[in-house]
Amino acid sequence: MSAFNQTSIADVNPGRTIAEADAAVASIKAARAAIGKVIYGQETVVERVLVTLLAGGHGLLVGVPGLAKTKLVETLGIVLGLEERRVQFTPDLMPSDILGSEVMDQDENGRRSFRFLKGPIFGQLLMADEINRASPRTQSALLQAMQEYHVTVAGQRYDLPSPFHVLATQNPLEQEGTYPLPEAQLDRFLLQIDVLYPDRDAERKMLFETTGASDAVAEKVTDAQSLKAIQQLVRRLPIGESVVEAILNLVRSARPGEIADSKLAGVIAWGPGPRASQALMLAVRARALIDGRYAPSVDDVIALAEPVLQHRMSLSFAARADGLTVRDVIGTLKSRIG
């Protein structure tokens, strides 16, 4: 579990950091505009995916087919100047299909040696399409790489490129023939991003823009090195004590042993661990920067509570039988810090 840099703007050259922040805000604004030319009516999804990337994490996109999840990842790769790869997860997919494998070569003298052929995981932005369709063994191979940023094949370590991000997709409806991700693996995702249907105006615009003689094309506005610089900047942004307390209060109140609200007693089966607090600490900074602010507020904590917590907690059987959902409980918890 990684430790977080507590350096603030006051600890470094403030003029230089503010200049970097101004440049980052302009770059992020240009990236959002470029994405908006291709992806219609998914402003919240785009914002949360950018939060995930700027915070240096991985995201789980949950939505029914046909909502442009694949198109979004492809567009992000172009706009951010990242090497993008895509893997369609299927039940027969093997770990070597993702990580790579060794092949035997023979030179002109007949001497044989093994050579490692890198798999699609050696890209800067990997789309794991329908990740829950692969076997647990294959899922584990990917998720271990997400945590450790390297793979080991035949005892040899191979570092992944930097930056390295995984955006996995999952269909929330069709569960037959799938292998749901275990809770410990879900915890590796910084955010769970729900992709909903577009509103009427966005869908109307989409009809005209995507069924004409030509489609809108994404344009590159930044590159991998600039993204890494912004990720480091995010970690240096100051964060007020009130925001830190809001993060701690929210995450700790979602744990069964620390529930103060009598109405929620017995509702939560298990709650988020410290990784959720860490995720919120980074995500609120990234969201503030995307919004053109140089320090997060409690409003950022409230806005990101659901995508950070919903895949890191579960309700009791009795609560589910009563029709409660995780989102209902998170909504109650947010009202306590709002």
Question: What structural class is derived from the secondary structure elements?
Answer: alpha/beta
CATH-assigned fold name of the domain at 239-338: Helicase, Ruva Protein, domain 3
Shape: globular
What percentage of residues falls in helices of 4 or more residues? 40-55%
**What is the straight-line distance between the termini?**
29 Å
The CATH homologous superfamily name of the domain at 239-338 equals Magnesium chelatase subunit I, C-Terminal domain
In CATH, the architecture of the domain at 239-338 is Orthogonal Bundle
Q: Strands of the largest sheet, in order across it?
A: 2-5-8-1-9
Which band does the percent of strand residues land in? 15-25%
Count of beta strands: 11
In N-to-C order, the SSE pattern is HHEHEHEEEHEEEHEHHHEHHEHH
Radius of gyration: 21 Å
Please outline the major beta sheet.
5 strands, parallel
Number of helices: 13
* Overall pLDDT: 88
Name of the CATH class of the domain at 239-338: Mainly Alpha
Low-confidence runs of at least 5 consecutive residues: 1-10
